[in-house]
Amino acid sequence: MMELKIQLIPTGEIILPPGKNGENFCHNCKVVASDGVRAMMESALTARDRVGVQDFVLLENYTSEAAFIENLRKRFKENLIYTYIGSVLVSVNPYKDLEIYTKNHMERYRGVNFYEVSPHIYAVADNSYRSMRTEGKDQCILISGESGAGKTEASKKILQYYAITCPASEQVQTVKDRLLQSNPVLEAFGNAKTLRNDNSSRFGKYMDIQFDFKGAPVGGHIINYLLEKSRVVHQNHGERNFHIFYQLIEGGEEDLLRRLGLERSPLQYQYLVKGNCPKVSSINDRSDWKVVRKALTVIGFNEDEVEELLNIIASVLHLGNVQYGGEEGSACITSDTQIKYLARLLGVNGSVLTEALTHKKIIAKGEELMSPLNLEQASSARDALSKAVYGRTFTWLVNKINASLAYTDDSHKHYSVIGLLDIYGFEVFQHNSFEQFCINYCNEKLQQLFIELTLKSEQEEYEAEGITWEPVQYFNNKIICDLVEEKFKGIISILDEECLRPGDASDFTFLEKLEDTVGGHPHFVTHKLADGKTRKVMGREEFRLLHYAGEVNYNVNGFLDKNNDLLFRNLKEVMVMSENNILTQCFDREELSDKKRPDTAATQFKASLAKLMEILMSKEPSYVRCIKPNDSKQAGRFDEVLIRHQVKYLGLMENLRVRRAGFAYRRRYEVFLQRYKSLCPDTWPNWQGKLADGVSTLVKHLGYKPEEYKLGRSKIFIRFPKTLFATEDALETRKHSLATKLQAGWKGYSQKSLFVGLKVSIAVQAWWRGILAKRRAQRRRQAANTIRRFVKGFIYRHKERCPENEYFLDYVRYSFLMNLRRNLPKNVLDKSWPTPPAALKEASEHLRKLCMQNMVWSYCKKISPEWKHQMEQKMIASELFKDKKDNYPQSVPKLFVSTRLNGEDINPKVLQALGSEKMKYAVPVTKYDRKGYKPRPRQLLLTGSSAIIAEEGKLKQRIDYGALKVTVVEFDHVIETLTKIAICAEKINNININQGSIKFTVGQGKEGIIDFTPGSELLVAKAKNGHLSVTAPRLNSR
Ligand SMILES: Nc1ncnc2c1ncn2[C@@H]1O[C@H](COP(=O)(O)OP(=O)(O)O)[C@@H](O)[C@H]1O
Ligand SMILES: [Mg+2]
């Protein structure tokens, strides 16, 4: 049996190892396995009693702020910092590191449905990413919340999520690295410790992450918004300047500091001591320096660029230390150490710089005059230069990073985008100035966008699904936005007017103008306009705005200057001449010739925000609403008052009401069915029909009442949370029983695989049997056809060839020929021959002859000359004796020899007597006397002309073949000898064979008779009747 393994994940959810084929057996189910297996399943939703609800829309008492906050508290105490309001993520800053941002966590959220896992920033990131991929629409993630609530952290987590989970290649890896490394650099130059946040972003940042068609991040682009430049020259108590100054001083190598003329102590620098807070326990400037230095290299800064950048940073510190003295009316610089450093570091002429720092160029009657500055003016000129240098360098830095992140592949121009907005949050300090005014205005705008988009999208969803929408009242902050930005009547317009108008405009005239113009506005109050109670908490130099997020008193001091953001012309001229490459890019020569006054800071900011709204509106938004649990940056402290305030101004209750006004819960049909299908026998384990029908079947089975839900086009909408909870409870119970089954199922898993294998083989067998049966049937059909044709052909066989009989005739011919081929005669003596059909009789005869000729021919071809000679002799013998002599057949197989006596057997005298005559055959014979038939041994020799009887050395008798008549002889090899005689004498036709008795003449009229009788033994003797009696054995005849 297979072992059941489980994987434990810190958040309490347990995932089963994937099955053989990689499938997951059970989502969201908790299985505790030991030897005895106890299985418990738990979904995030059903854990609501312990840790509240993971989605506020499921709160039964959704209008109660207390219930809302209680839910937040419960979860916060359990370190569950994330909760949804529908698709909006509410995040509470834990102020401690939680183990929820590991790679494992990223993997768990990757490609998983939003609601199937507990709320997380990764879920938002993944959801946006998937929407971008599947719907092809650009996305943006808007992170809002007040300073220190965790916006920047959230945006970093999102970026990390993409960097790790998105597909990568070598080139993409570089982009990912640069995207990630842009953060420490921008934070070093743009973040600072404030009272609210040790790492507070003092600039707004909108970052586009560009993805190619494969979903890999291939580029990025950053837009920065209004850096809080005033921080360069001044910090409130308990706050710091931008991190980079401290990092450089703490971390910079000795050599570097020497080159920059810096000492390793922030206390030496006027610009770093204002807040009286150079050291912060939560910040390690030295190690941060290393991180920033490395990041600069990753982004693509070379050594020279880094040096030039640091020259500027050091210059700002030196500028801060420029001290003025001299008379009241005309300031002069008391120490020239700084000027020396500045001249070198900025690459400018020292005396020109000195003059520019103490004089102002005025043009009177077409003439340029240098007018000395008083102490105050000189200080503010110096600070203006510092702010300008730092501010422009920051913008240059953003541009430089953008160049390094730019998507350079021209072949694939098209890319999708996910925008990340991490902008300064709503801020309220004891003293609030122009910067806070801008920051809070920005937050008003974002809130407006949030209201519009969430309401709009909600409404659109109902419309799209064909569900009636019930409008909900909510506070629309448009009225405040208008108060700030309206043309001519808005605060920014009035401020600009005061900045631009001739005459003695001051921060106070600006305040008065405000009172005159917007004094009656319900969201605007000044000390003069306020009631007694408010007046107590307001200064005379302040105006109060009733923001959506709360009341803020702004001190008008510095508003005009900051809005003007002016740098004396002669200081600009000095910077234009700088040899520092960065500064020459920052201070453009054309700027000097441009007579047109640049837009004021507030107007520029307003325009950039309008552009930002456009960018955001063109994209599909997701929201992260960050909440700060306490003001002391402490882990585990849940400050209810503070939180209630944020919940209120973030509009979370309204958000919830809007969400709930229609339906508390909505899911796409497939998601709903997938989750709850086990609750209805008709939908378990799988629903085959249309999804909507499946959901309808399911909810009817569950007993949903008609008013409890609506079925849209692609989603089910459930009005009350309790309906969903009842369903969840049912699922819980069901899962318990399923868990037992799961265990059993697991046990049977291998069996099941076996069974599946078996099923497959059964299917294969059945299939094969089917094939065989088909083949058999086909064969049967063919056979029947053949038989039918055959029978028909047989009936018509004697007819002319016609369609009915052609098959039969062909078949008969074919089978005869095939039979003949198998049974051809093996030799010439074999007379067998298959009987041909009528149609082939003639052909058969021809074939037979051909066959015979062929056999004869091939036989003859094989015959040797000796054998031919032998055969010729046998032929002659056949003609002579066949049917004439009884024992002839027995003689046939006996081969004839060329002679029976060789030269040495014949007396030489005989041979000599023969002379030239060639002896052709010789055989021993027995001569019987004519008279007494006395046997006498003799030799018979045959020559070309005569037959000779020899006795030892004498030629006893020579008979010419012509005269050869009857000679009674008895000798061995009769047939052979006679055949030879016939051949030699050429008397084949003259030889008569007489088997009975032969008469012959025995001289002078006397006749002799020879009687032949068959017998068992050869016997030649004179018989009593005077005849010569010859008894010859039949079988052994010679
Ligand atoms: N998810 C988080 N986990 C742990 N600490 C966090 C988290 N979010 C914020 N913090 C802490 O809060 C501080 C302020 O967060 P930050 O994102 O800079 O706030 P904001 O950008 O909203 O002003 C961070 O420096 C960090 O110490
Ligand atoms: Mg921030």
Automatic annotation (TrEMBL):
Cellular component GO terms held in the UniProt record: cell cortex; microvillus; myosin complex; stereocilium membrane
InterPro entries linked to this entry: IQ_motif_EF-hand-BS, Kinesin_motor_dom_sf, Myosin_head_motor_dom-like, MYSc_Myo1, P-loop_NTPase
Primary localization: membrane
One Pfam family, short name: Myosin_head
Myosin motor domain boundaries: 52-732
Keyword terms: Acetylation, Actin-binding, ATP-binding, Cytoplasm, Motor protein, Myosin, Nucleotide-binding, Repeat
Positions that bind ATP: G145, E146, S147, G148, A149, G150, K151, T152
Any one Gene Ontology molecular-function term assigned to this protein's record: actin filament binding
Entry keyword annotation includes Cell membrane: no
Parts of the chain that traverse the membrane: none
Family: Belongs to the TRAFAC class myosin-kinesin ATPase superfamily. Myosin family.
Protein's recorded name: Myosin motor domain-containing protein
